[in-house]
Write a structure and sequence with these properties.
Blueprint lengths: L5 E2 L2 E2 L25 E7 L2 H8 L5 E9 L8 H4 L7 E8 L6 H12 L7 E2 L2 E2 L5 E5 L2 H16 L10 E4 L3 E3 L7 H4 L4 H17 L9
Parallel strand pairs: 8-9
Antiparallel strand pairs: 1-2, 3-5, 3-8, 4-5, 4-10, 6-7
Helix pairs in contact: 1-3, 1-6
Length: 214
């Protein structure tokens, strides 16, 4: 992700939108017998997305990484150049008995990023920062596409949704220093300007979805 934190003379504020619940979702009865499930999302810099979803009740683990390209070029030095077709992504391991795939999608679309931007998120530009969903099951693909259609029909956004819905192929974990980056680097300039404000908005908007703090 780029380290630029201003455009012109103003700061880029984190995206936040109130949108409807998904009409179509995966029935938890059909998934709980399988234990945990995985969801893979891409929406700009993976640092902030990881930090946000780590706080969602029912989410067991989140990793940053790369999806959409090959294993041979799945490293930050290559991906950050924009020519590998990877997207900076997060892999979410979650308990469908506690949080549904549709609920994760709503968070992703409403606070996680701006799904109307094409091959960029704010100051971060390039295909590696595209908005994408990598569906790990046919059910996920159906629910994701149905939700995008619902959001478009309801005109929830001022512009067309640019989010790609792709079949999941592989997820390649990012380098160790990218994992839990926001938690370990709260004073990093990019984190201060982009990720911490996003986290605050998420906590306000989804206070009922947060993990109980011990």
């Amino acid at each position: 992700m780029g380290l630029a934190i201003t455009v012109g003379s103003f700061l880029i504020s984190p995206f936040s939108k109130v949108i409807p619940d998904p009409v179509v979702d995966i029935n938890p009865v059909s998934t709980t017998a399988r234990g945990t499930e995985k969801a893979v999302f891409a929406g700009g810099c993976f640092w902030g997305l990881e930090a946000m979803f780590e706080e969602v009740r029912g989410v067991k683990d989140v990793q940053t990484g790369y999806s959409g390209g090959t294993e041979a070029t799945a490293n930050y030095a290559r991906v950050s150049g924009g020519g590998t077709d990877h997207a900076e992504s997060i892999e979410i391991v979650y308990d469908p008995a506690q949080v549904s795939y549709g609920e994760l999608l709503k968070i992703f679309f409403s606070v996680g990023h701006d799904p109307t931007q094409v091959n960029r998120q704010g100051v971060d530009q390039g295909r590696q920062y595209r908005s994408a969903i990598f569906a790990t099951t046919p059910e996920q693909k159906q629910v994701a596409q149905a939700y995008i259609d619902q959001l478009e029909e309801s005109q929830a956004f001022d512009q067309a949704i640019a989010t790609e819905v792709n079949d999941f192929d592989a997820f390649y974990p990012a380098e160790d220093y990218h994992q839990d980056f926001v938690q370990r680097n709260p004073a990093h300039p990019y984190v201060l300007v982009h990720d911490l404000p996003k986290l605050r908005k998420f906590r306000q908007q989804y206070s009922d979805k947060l993990k109980v703090q011990s």
